[in-house]
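name: query_chain
kind: protein
chains: 1
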Amino acid sequence: MIKATIFIFLISFTLINSQTVLVDNARINFYKASQEEKYLLMAVELFEEILKNSSQNEARWKVYLGSLESMKAMYSLWPQNKLEHANKGISMMEKWIQKADSDIEALFVYGTSCYYMPFFMGQKDNADWAFNRIVDVCYKSELLEEKELMNNVLEFLEKEYDLDDSRKEKLEIIKKKYSSN
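structure:
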């Protein structure tokens, strides 16, 4: 009985650990894909593998896949393909962000994806909503456990995005709360 319990524990630990490695690799490839096309397909495959292994955080991973779909527009040669990928990615993200509207990571992926889209795609309001929502969620509740990811979110909001005055004040409180952890 003890051997069986230890065996089950070890298998569970290995699965959790391998899922963590898979998530880390998917995130890394996602960020690399925003800079180089050669990482795009690998990022898509890794996020699809995450979804196949677990339904936990499904909406978050689907937002990443939507963002990756919209990234395909950057690397497409033909304007009609660019528009098709961008619109499909936006549609995917909009569908899933509604189910993850308190997930800081999903909001950040959605917000930055909208923020960096060309102005004629009309995504500024969606970026505004996502970034303001991040501040509101962080102000009222827990922050991301992944310290590096949370630092990236806070740094982006502070340096890249123009928050209104009330949210700037909230961001300062969030930073103090976060630095004390």
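note: DSSP finds eight helices and no strands in the chain.
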